[in-house]
Amino acid sequence: MSDFNRRKFLEGSAGVAAAAALGTGGTLFAPHVMAQQTLTYKPEKGATLRVLRWSRFVQGDIDAYMANVKKFTEKTGIPVRVDNEGWEDVRPKAAVAANTGAGPDIILSTNDDANLYPDKLLDVTDLGEYLGKKYGGWYPAAQQFNKPDGKKWIAIPLGASGSLVVYRESAVKAAGFDTFPKNTDDFLKLMKALKEKGTPGGMALGNATGDGLWCNWLVWAFGGKLVDQNNKVVIDSPETARALEYGKELYATFIPGTLSWLDPNNNKAFLDGQIALTNNGISIYYAAKNSADPKVKEMSADINHAVFPIGPVGTPTESHLYFNQMIMKYTKYPQAAKEFLRFMMEQEQFDPWQTGAGGYVAPALAAYAKGNIWTVDPKHTPYRDSVKNLRPAGYAGKLGYASAGAAADFIVVNMVAEAVSGSKSVKEAMERAQKRAERYYRV
Question: Where found, per UniProt (predicted)?
Fold first, then answer.
């Protein structure tokens, strides 16, 4: 957080050429970015705001976020209450709020959740277009998630926590690999070697909102997909079958217990030294670097990150945990809520928050990929382009209620878990996933 404390920013105004150099290297924004006039809203008299957001995995995230909240209140006089909940708890609470028309004014949720109830959300097209023009444009995946019809913004993108491979360099080298494997064949060889060396890997196969996303990579890497471009369910396919057969071999190398793992489990297993490889955001590395335990802190020097290997399809198939910011239509203070999100997304606030979070959230706006946090430590860099390279879970169809419902129901994760563990045959697991998905994708 020393970088956070050292950072200084120039106020955005007409005629300002660029941001000042920051911290240990700084973020330099193009002149046209900083020169743009700021959009402002006129908050309602007596406005108060309540924000529901997912709970931290990185302490610096919430510290920097709350510092910005305090700054907003000091500037506007608007009190803001922030409630933190686990990812699995935010989704049902958001659904209840949308259906009852009461609850938080703003909800920070995950993946495709905004598409579950788009008619319950405030139109934020003016804010979405303003931020995109000012900060280098939104990455395509962000627009797919929160601008599903190509015209109206139903939520404001925040970013994504990258689902990357987190591994111990010493264990990978001891297994016979000088560099991390780039393809699925070599990745399987590595996983088998790690198990033989007594330093196995393990990835979540429970209903883990973030850490279960590796199952999308597995299916896509072999050419499988939940739906085609016409939103026809096609998960029961030869391509998916090949992915699941590969997954069975991969699962055989895992530490026992991964079928019940949720998002916190692999973090604990890795930091306890039970596993030498998993998939996760940057939070494991962050926790190790900032640990009060000397042994855990020492581990950070041995931790590294890599994007998932490329499968037979020959192209990257990255799946990451996406974050959106929804303003509920029932809010009594829509102008205040828009002003809050605008304020939090402006460079003066966003860059220190991004830095405070230690690279946990990759940006959805292209300009923020130039932040110092992504290069000050080379182990951060693999996470930087997570939104840029993100393939939404509704691939290859159009996002909407069906894709959001299928993702929230963990259809792909459950299929993979059933098949690789042997609780169902590959064919049975695919058939069940096909039927479950068809309940959402009704023609």
Answer: Periplasm
pLDDT tens readout for residues 305-330: 999 999 999 999 999 999 999 999 99
Query: Strands 49-54 and 80-85: what pairing?
Result: parallel
Q: How many CB atoms lie within 10 A of CB 144?
A: 22
How confident is the model over 37-50, as pLDDT tens digits? 789 899 999 999 99
**Residue 166 is which amino acid?**
V
Q: Which two tokens stand for residue 174?
A: 């001891």
DSSP 116: G
Average pLDDT over residues 341-367: 97
Strand extents, DSSP E, 86-210: 106-110, 156-161, 164-168
Whole-number CA gyration radius for the chain: 22
Q: Which residues are bridge partners to 52 per DSSP?
A: 83, 107
Q: Are 280 and 141 in contact (CB under 8 A)?
A: no
Residue 26, pLDDT score: 40
Contacts 24+ apart (CB under 8 A), 418-424: 419/244, 419/247, 419/248, 420/205, 420/244, 420/247, 420/248, 420/250, 420/251, 421/205, 421/251, 421/259, 422/248
- Cα dihedral sign, 166-172-173-174: positive
Q: Which of 132, 176, 227, 133 is nearest to 441 (CA)?
A: 227
Q: Are the CB atoms for 379 and 285 separated by under 8 Å?
A: yes
Q: Residues 6 or more apart from 300 whose CB is under 8 A from it?
A: 285, 288, 289, 291
pLDDT confidence of residue 37: 72
Q: Which domains does the chain show, CATH number per domain?
A: 2-162+320-383 (3.40.190.10), 164-318+409-440 (3.40.190.10)
| Weakest mean pLDDT among 16-30, 121-135, 234-248 | 16-30
